[in-house]
Amino acid sequence: MKIFEENEEVESPVIEALQAASMSNAMMKVLNVKYQKKWDNLDEIKAGIGVALGRALVIKAGFSGSGIEELVYMGDVVNRASKMCGLAYKEYNSPICVTQEAYENAGKFIANKDRGKTFQDYLNKKTHDNHGNVYVGNFFRLNINDWAKENS
């Protein structure tokens, strides 16, 4: 899990999250190539990547004097992102699933400059009984994906 916060250094936390999703998706392809070479009977690794937009409460938790000082993220956005992870492969056979709000906030950011495509261009609308409109896709970093193709 990764929380992206809004600040002056980033264009949008949703864009940051979608860029991270493209990197994570590509890295799964690399892991599958490497694992398949080492263990040829290994099933392909699949993991759903979920993106949601909203506010999270962050609390530092731990026992006084224990040395445990972990951050705990709470809120509906955390739960929705987790649900999107579950929907990705389980229901839609797609590695990436985002909420309606995340899709809308992706705006017109160009994700592929060569083709002039936005993240929205790589996401397809699905309607879920419990979660309303969600958007699924399979986008990745091209250079990493090319490496995986060449080495598989």
Present the secondary structure layout.
Elements: H1 13-38, E1 49-51, E2 57-61, E3 70-74, H2 76-92, E4 96-99, H3 100-106, E5 110-112, E6 117-118, E7 123-128, E8 132-137, H4 142-151
Parallel strand pairs: 1-4
Antiparallel strand pairs: 2-3, 4-8, 5-6, 7-8
Helix pairs in contact: 1-4
Write structural notes for this entry:
With 152 residues, the chain is α+β, with helices and mostly antiparallel strands. It has a single domain, classed as Alpha-Beta Plaits. Helices cover 39% and strands 22% of the residues. It has a 4-stranded mixed beta sheet with strand order 1-4-8-7. It has a two-stranded antiparallel ribbon with strand order 2-3. Helix 1 packs parallel to helix 4. The radius of gyration is 17 Å and the shape is globular. It starts with 12 loop residues before the first helix and ends with a helix. The model has no long low-confidence stretch (mean pLDDT 91).
List keywords for this structure.
152 residues, alpha+beta, Alpha-Beta Plaits, four-stranded mixed beta sheet, 4 helices
CATH topology: Alpha-Beta Plaits
Decide which structural class fits the backbone: alpha+beta
Task: For the largest sheet, list the strands in their spatial order.
Answer: 1-4-8-7
Helix percent band: 25-40%
End-to-end CA span = 28 Å
Short summary of the structure?
By secondary structure, this protein is α+β, with helices and mostly antiparallel strands. The protein has helices spanning 13-38, 76-92, 100-106, 142-151, and strands spanning 49-51, 57-61, 70-74, 96-99, 110-112, 117-118, 123-128, 132-137.
